[in-house]
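I'll show one example:
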Amino acid sequence: MAAGTGWSGMSVFGLRIPGFLGYPGGPGGGTFSRPYRCFSGALSGKEMIEEGGKVILPPSALQELTQLGVEYPMLFRVEREGSGPKTHCGVLQFDADEGTCCMPFWMMASLGVGEGELVRLTSVTLPKAEFARLQPHRKDFMDLHNPRVVMETALRNFATLTQGEQICIQYDHETYEFNVLALTPGREQGNEREAVSIIQTDVVVDFAPSVEEEAAARSEAQQQEEERELQRAQRLSRLAEAAKKRKGLATAEEPAEGSAEEPARKKPLPFQGTTGRRLKGSSAPVKSDSVVFHSTPHSAASPKPSDSRPLAQSEQSVRPVSSTTPFSGSARSLK
């Protein structure tokens, strides 16, 4: 081809690849979209893909991408055929069996698909990342020597990051999982989550407190709240018990009406006098609220009547007091 056409490339499996490994793409600019049956790296014998976020496609995919003129870097949206969550990836190789796609197991778990299920790959263009906030699941990741360098090195095996997904990296024969919390820049397309490209760009990585630390903090906060609730319940119980005791003492000090323990002063005294009347032979009126007791003249101490019952209404009238003893014998004639 003539120089300067932009079609300078390299040969992979006998095909010239425009836009692959840094070479400019062709003039087509179409969209690639094909379904494939997915298999994990362990099942397909390609364990190296488990260390990153790239997939292996069949040679026919490369030929179609070339014909469509999809530019490098070749990035794809991956989704479960029909409906379901979405993620994004790059391509590592083009030597998978026809009709199949090899992808990391963590990516299959993120999509909720099993071995041999259908997924659809669609070519996309994503903005370059500037910032990524990740949350490790294990708190011991932050105990590694320079964990930021470990993460930046591991991200070289990734082509994209999707906000809200969970990724895995391998380091020193250990597997570490991370939640992608925030990405800058990012864009929202309909129901898609934000996604960015991390190829040939400097990404500032920040770490959030680990999932284990957050779980421990929530457990401690919940325990403290339960202790406060218990203390409040105990205080209310003590207040209720004290109020019950005070009510019981007050009830015991107040005898029931008509009981034998009721003070005698509360019983009405028998009436033994007159009210509101003038005594015969006396000019001083008797007060209406006073009680008058009668005594026999010339007697300093008269015995109290044995009958203490109240006087009948007919007996409450004042009788004249005589200085002589009334006659009590039988009548006789001197004739």
DSSP finds five helices and 14 strands in the chain. The helical segments are 41-44, 59-68, 105-111, 147-154, 211-253. Residues 1-28, 286-290, 298-303, 311-318 have pLDDT under 50 and may be disordered. The first helix runs from residue 41 to 44.
